[in-house]
Amino acid sequence: MAEFDAPEDDEFDESLMDRARVMAAEVGDPFLVLRAAVELFAATPSESLTDTGLSADVIRLRRQIGRLEAVFGEYVLGSHRRGLCGHDAMRSTPAWLAWQTGLHRGQVRRAIDTADLAELLPTMGRAWRDGRVSTNAMEAIAAARVAGHDEKLAACEEEFYDLARRGDHKGVRRAAEAFKHLARADGTMPIEPDGLRLSKVLNGRSNISGELSGDAAETVTTALNTFMDPPAETDDRTPAQRRADALVRICQIALHQGAKGVRAAANVTVTVDWATFTRSSSSGSGLGVMDGQYTGPIDRRDIDRLLCDSTISRVIMGPDSKPLDVGRSQRAFTDPQRNAIIARDQGCGWIGCEIPGGWCEVHHHTHWEHGGPTCIENGCLLCPYHHRFLHRHPDWTTTFHNQILRIYRPDGRELLPAWNTLAA
Known about the structure:
47% of the residues lie in helices and 13% in strands. The strands form four sheets. Strands 3, 4, 5, 6, 7 and 8 form a six-stranded mixed beta sheet that branches. Strands 1-2 form a two-stranded antiparallel sheet. The radius of gyration is 28 Å and the shape is globular. Helix 3 crosses helix 5, helix 5 (105-120) packs across helix 7 (135-142) and helix 14 packs across helix 16. The longest helix is centred in the N-terminal third of the chain and has 32 residues, at 51-82. It has four domains: 14-185, no CATH class; 195-257, no CATH class; 266-331, no CATH class; 335-408, no CATH class. It contains 16 helices and twelve strands. By secondary structure, the protein is an alpha+beta fold.
């Protein structure tokens, strides 16, 4: 079997590397050297190459792309460990980089997992960076990791490396799957958690895939079989199609019986003394009395958030600790208002966030306690994470005009992706 090695630049030596280092030092940015190299390739049309040259160069080019993917993975892993997504108020590194670069979140997660694997398997990691094993081989092995079995996986590195080095891609996948199966069958470690993935594909369709434990799979299978139409001569649907229809039917019934199609708002009873209730949210927490019915002390900024989209039973205490006012339970936004805002906004209004509308809360852009009206024009959708973030970071400001929420950092800069403004 042919080795993975592609025709490589035999003439490339340390003298060329030294010249590249000097050039990077002169321009002050190695990315400019990389960009210049890419520009050279972009200016060389494939039609100008001979068959021999094109067949060699396409493989050599892919090899260097693989090496860049290794470096990119290392950078992404470093960003993940430092929590850099927090600088842009994003929920996670995958969410942040997906917004900044246009990658799918799954691609970012794979980059993190594969870079982490390169540290666990240093020989494979060096070979990946050197272009001697492919990114696909690394991703296949990374997908085979099972919690608690990293030492056993590391013990298999030589076998994985031999398969990947020889370009036996099918062998790498088989070995990875075999390891994963044996590790899960061990029984000495925690069971792999269930997972369900939902991703959009072409033409407005979606792909659902997942993995369930035995009892969970039994429950789902029983439900599907219960609501799945039996085969009939007049029904030309495949079993997969009938199963998909059954899943949709189950979800429709669950929504009708349960949440009425929208996510229910919180029901909260809060005891607040009048001085604290009227104090500015910038005053911070720890002043006065703010107690939840079950949770005890509540942060002042969380009171602001709860007042946006909750059913509130307020108990306002006077200076003598006696109830001053007990208000009626009321919803800040009515169901019709909430439905209209969901239909308008579709999802979280925070730029780069893709949480759907049914999982979001309605935020008063001008706070209710500051005189903001409870109307559609003053309401915008925010996911729970960004709703909490905005109320806990009053130095982040927003504007809301023509149903567009704009977010500004504490230094006044608008929160925007940098990928289309940074020099390559």
